[in-house]
Each structure stands twice: as structure tokens, then as C-alpha cells.
Amino acid sequence: MKNLGFALYGALLSALLVVINGIAAVQSIGHRSGAVFNLNNDVVGVKTVQVPVLMLLASAVISCALFYAVTAGLRTQPSSLPVVSVISFIVVTCALVAGSFFLEGGRSTGSGIVVGVLPGWRGWLEEGGSSLATLTILVFSIGILGKTLLARFRRNETIISPRLPARAEQARS
Q1: Which residue spans traverse the membrane (predicted)?
Q2: Is 97 part of a structural domain of the chain?
């Protein structure tokens, strides 16, 4: 049951990473083009063109905080539970990134030019999944998971230990 909780924790952080980076990416597009987007990704105003420094900074800081949240347990707890959360984070992030590329490819025009931002969560998924912040955190997560598993393998620790039924444990004693 704990494994399921840690898996859901990793999946939730993954979805949060993609959504936050997607919202920041849509708002950055608006800053660079002089448009004001609402949360449904509709243009609701026009303003002067700006460099989206605060959006990029917010995306970087929140991505790093989520990376720390998902990988902190690997450094502090020797059990297999944090490994489950990182694995689910990686799997769900890969699925969301793949989904973002399917969304992007599905709306291209014949000339290969993609215009506009998809409405609502689809736009967040498309922009967040193809965001460099999301992809960088994904690569770092894969790297730290690999490093942790290799270190545990070298120390001859079990990575995910199977639980024996209560009767089998009593018979062993």
C-alpha cells in the first residue's frame, strides 16, 4: 500500500511539473508576442512586447523545487519507497512528454507551420511537455535514479524487496 502512495506522489509531482511549466510557457509566449493570455489560453488583451524574465525564473525555481521533492527521499531513506516515487515520476513525465508531441503533431498545417496555442489544459500539456525545463528535470531524474540504483547494486542492497506473506515469515523463524 505504501508503494502505491509513493507512486501516486511521483505521478502527482510529474503532472504538476508539466502543468506549471505549460502555464509558464504559454504566458512567456504572450510576453514575447505582446499578447495577454488567460488560463484558458485565449488572448484577452494586447500589451508591449517584453522579455518573460519572471516567467522563466518562476519556471526554473518551481522545477528545481519539484525535482528536490521527488528525489529527496533517495538521499535520506535507504528503503525502496523513494525509488518507486522517482520511477513513477519518470514514467508519467515520459508519457506526458510523448502526449505533448502527439498534440503538437496533430494540429500542424500542410506547410509545417503550427500557429497558436491549444485551449486550456491541452495547451498546457503541449507547451509544458515540450518545455526545456521539463525535459531537463526528466533527464536529471533519470540520472539520479541510475546513480542511486548503481550505488545500491554495488553495496549489494536489494532495490525493491518483495514482502513475504505472514505465514512464510513465521515458518522461516
Answers
A1: 49-69, 81-103, 131-150
A2: yes
3-state secondary structure the chain: CHHHHHHHHHHHHHHHHHHHHHHHHHHHHHHHHCEEECCCCCEEEECCCCCCHHHHHHHHHHHHHHHHHHHHHHHHCCCCHHHHHHHHHHHHHHHHHHHHHHHHHHCCCCCCCCCCCCCHHHHHHHHHHCCHHHHHHHHHHHHHHHHHHHHHHHCCCCCCCCCCCHHHHHHHC
Does residue 165 belong to any structural domain of this protein?
no
More confident residue, 57 or 105: 57
pLDDT-derived band at 117, boundaries 50, 70, 90: confident
Residue 24 lies in a domain: yes
**Residue whose C-alpha cell is 489544459:** 121
Q: Which residue has the cell 509531482?
A: 13
Task: Give the pLDDT confidence score for residue 159 in this predicted structure.
Answer: 57
DSSP letter, residue 149: H
Predicted TM-score (pTM) of this structure = 0.79
Give domain status of residue 69, yes or no: yes
Q: Which domain holds residue 42?
A: 2-158
